[in-house]
Design goal:
With 62 residues, the chain is an all-alpha fold. It contains 3 helices and no strands.
């Protein structure tokens, strides 16, 4: 087994790993999880806006 065989096998292995990652990322059953994860940064904004509204309502009532 010479270096060119090792290079060829490593190329095949990396290609199969790439195909596996693409299949995992674009699998239809993972879409819901990825959509939820994509919206996580916005969840913090909504919570901070709600708490700011509550505080402003409390200050108006005083």
């Amino acid at each position: 087994m010479d270096i060119n065989t090792v290079r060829g096998l490593s190329t095949v292995f990396v290609f199969l790993a790439f195909i596996g990652v693409c299949w995992w990322a674009f699998s239809p059953k993972r879409k819901k999880k990825f959509d939820e994860a994509a919206n996580l940064p916005f969840a913090d904004d909504e919570q901070s806006q709600q708490s700011a509204r509550k505080e402003s309502e409390q200050h108006r009532g005083e």
